[in-house]
């Protein structure tokens, strides 16, 4: 019976060189929300017809995103490699708007915070659409899963 969902997420700590409290909070929320509800259906046939649930490990390797997909018992099923060139701009824009958002939370009016948050969500949504497009034919994900995965991809790109 198919169970196309993620049950565990691991980020390669060697890839993440710098974190602050805001980043840690984003990471925790993204992982929690992802595990609470997601759709993750690799399009490749696995041995013995395995169809989920999945454990994933995200890492950046030589400028590419590596997604290790494993079975529930931890057996590696495949590693999917995605070029990140098309994500450079969305990641940069997302970092910039998140910085503005965190500053606004500390010192702006509610209306200013809402404006920055709307812009942040817009960038995040566009990046999720891009991720869904890049995964097409490899892994079927829903929009919310793509949004949360993009957040985690951003965490992997944080530099001090």
From TrEMBL:
<dbReference type="Pfam" id="PF06793">
    <property type="entry name" value="UPF0262"/>
</dbReference>
<protein>
    <recommendedName>
        <fullName>UPF0262 protein BHE75_02814</fullName>
    </recommendedName>
</protein>
<comment type="similarity">
    <text>Belongs to the UPF0262 family.</text>
</comment>
<dbReference type="InterPro" id="IPR008321">
    <property type="entry name" value="UCP032146"/>
</dbReference>
């Amino acid at each position: 019976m198919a169970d196309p969902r993620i049950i565990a997420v691991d980020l390669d700590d060697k890839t993440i060189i710098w974190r602050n409290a805001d980043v840690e909070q984003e990471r925790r929320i993204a992982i929690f929300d992802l595990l609470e509800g997601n759709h993750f259906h690799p399009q490749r046939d696995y041995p013995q017809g395995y169809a989920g649930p999945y454990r994933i490990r995200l890492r950046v390797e030589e400028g590419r995103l590596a997604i290790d997909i494993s079975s529930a018992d931890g057996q590696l099923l495949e590693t999917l490699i995605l070029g990140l060139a098309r994500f450079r701009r969305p990641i940069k824009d997302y970092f910039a708007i998140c910085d503005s958002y965190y500053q606004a939370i500390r010192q702006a009016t509610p209306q200013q915070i809402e404006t920055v948050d709307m812009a942040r969500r817009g960038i995040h949504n566009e990046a999720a659409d891009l991720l869904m497009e890049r995964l097409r034919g490899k892994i079927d994900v829903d929009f919310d899963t793509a949004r949360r995965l993009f957040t985690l991809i951003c965490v992997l790109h944080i530099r001090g």
